[in-house]
Write a structure and sequence with these properties.
By secondary structure, the protein is an alpha+beta fold. The chain contains 7 helices and 7 strands; from the N terminus they run αααααββααβββββ.
């Protein structure tokens, strides 16, 4: 019964009148046009994978566009001023970035090498907000089944990953990245074979031993390595 007594006008419109719906429609069309114009001015960099700087710009534009669409007490002119300032700052900083490498690195960041010579660049990898399984999933998207196929993998400033492969004749033994591969990790080496360190990907040909510490990272967990060629 309380549900039937609900004030549907307040529930649907808040403190506004039905006539405000027409104004909302106009505001939405107006701000939609402003957004399209703004993104056109920004160019392709505004709509592809975004760097941190570009993401800040897009969030700023979205915030400026959203409120005027349905808040009556937010005028359209202040939103236009915000758009103008944000886009002007974007153009200014973009030109500055193109002229000064220090500013570019400060605003955009630097590309970071995550794999080098078939092994994790562990100091670099630890600085990136990227989990191992998430990174493995990215590698699998490139048709990579183990690290020995990769000469270098670099995370770019926009978050995408660039991969450079070994030729088939140069593929090394490496840490497998297929799902479930790390479930078979061991600390006791029971049979001679090629193994890879679970933590850094260092490959080694090991003999039976109770415990073997990786010479690169000092960890002691291993999985069997593979040197399969990449399937294209």
């Amino acid at each position: 019964m309380n549900f039937l007594k609900l004030n549907w006008k307040d529930f649907l419109l808040g403190s506004e009148d039905w006539s405000f719906l027409v104004e909302v429609a106009f505001r939405t069309f107006f701000m939609f046009a402003v957004i399209l114009i703004g993104l056109s001015i920004l160019g392709k960099r505004g709509v592809k994978q975004l760097s941190v700087f570009e993401l800040v710009v897009i969030i700023g534009l979205g915030s400026a566009a959203g409120d005027p669409m349905f808040y009556k007490d937010v005028g359209l002119l202040p939103a236009l001023i915000v758009f103008t300032i944000v886009i002007s700052l974007y153009i200014f900083v973009t030109k500055l970035v193109g002229r000064n490498k220090k500013v570019e690195h400060l605003v955009e960041g630097k590309p970071v090498c995550l794999i080098e010579d078939g092994q994790f660049a562990i100091n670099n990898f630890a600085k990136e907000p990227l989990g191992q399984e998430e990174f493995f999933a990215e590698l699998r998207n490139y048709g990579i089944s183990h690290l020995g196929q990769v000469e270098q993998a670099i995370i770019e400033t926009n978050g995408s990953i660039s991969v450079f492969y070994y030729e088939d004749k140069d593929v090394k033994y490496g840490l497998p990245v297929l799902p479930g591969a790390l479930d078979k990790q061991v600390t006791v080496i029971k049979e001679p074979d090629h193994y890879a360190c679970v933590f850094c990907g260092y490959p080694a040909q090991l003999k039976p031993v109770n415990r073997h510490h990786c010479p690169k990272c000092e960890k002691d967990k291993w999985v069997k390595a593979t040197n399969k060629k990449r399937v294209r």
